[in-house]
Amino acid sequence: MKRQNKTVLYRRAKDILRNNEGASIVLVTIISILVVTSVIILSVSVNTLMASADKQYYQDQAYEAAKSMGSALDSLIAGGNLPLDEYNGQVLVSDEDPENLVKVNAVARSKNAEYFDVIITAKAADEEYVYTLTYFKSGKMFMRVS
Predict the structure, then answer these.
(1) What is the strand order of the sheet 141-144 is part of?
(2) pLDDT for 59-93, tens place per residue?
(3) What does the angle CA 87 – CA 90 – CA 92 come to, to the nearest 5 degrees?
(4) Most buried by CB count within 10 Å: which residue of 7, 10, 37, 57?
(5) Which listed CATH number (3.40.1350, 3.30.1300, 3.40.50, 1.10.3210) goes with 41-144?
(6) Whole-number Å distance between alpha carbons of 28 and 111
(7) If you ran DSSP here, which 8-state letter would residue 143 be given?
(8) Alpha-carbon distance 98 to 11, whole Å?
(9) Is the pTM value of this prediction over 0.70?
(10) DSSP sequence for 44-103
(11) Regions of the chain with pLDDT less than 50
């Protein structure tokens, strides 16, 4: 196989493009289409990744808000400071953080005379997390079941 010099190939390509006016226009068009297509693909990929990251961030924020509210309510209920039977079907606590778009509500519901559910719903932007605590009534005290 004959070895060719790079300058010979460069001159050859240069001659082809100079002698054929249509070939240079076609080459420039193809290169432009490739550049525009790669920019569009890159833009769509970045937007998709950012949307996925935002969704995960809001899911985590809703989860943390619900768990935090659940922990605070659990300590109040276990300490005897919040009798669930008096708040049956009512909102125990409602909190909102407009800066971070987070809303948290806690509702007490009676399953029967002895078991109560505390349902905590946290919403961050469009994402929602529901956290449920179940309590057993023993006398005047409430014990967490699950």
Answers:
(1) 91-97, 102-110, 115-124, 127-138, 141-144
(2) 999 999 999 999 999 998 888 888 888 888 888 88
(3) 70
(4) 57
(5) 3.30.1300
(6) 73
(7) E
(8) 67
(9) no
(10) HHHHHHHHHHHHHHHHHHHHHHHHHHHHHHHHHHHTTSS-GGGGBTSEEEEEEETTTTEE
(11) none
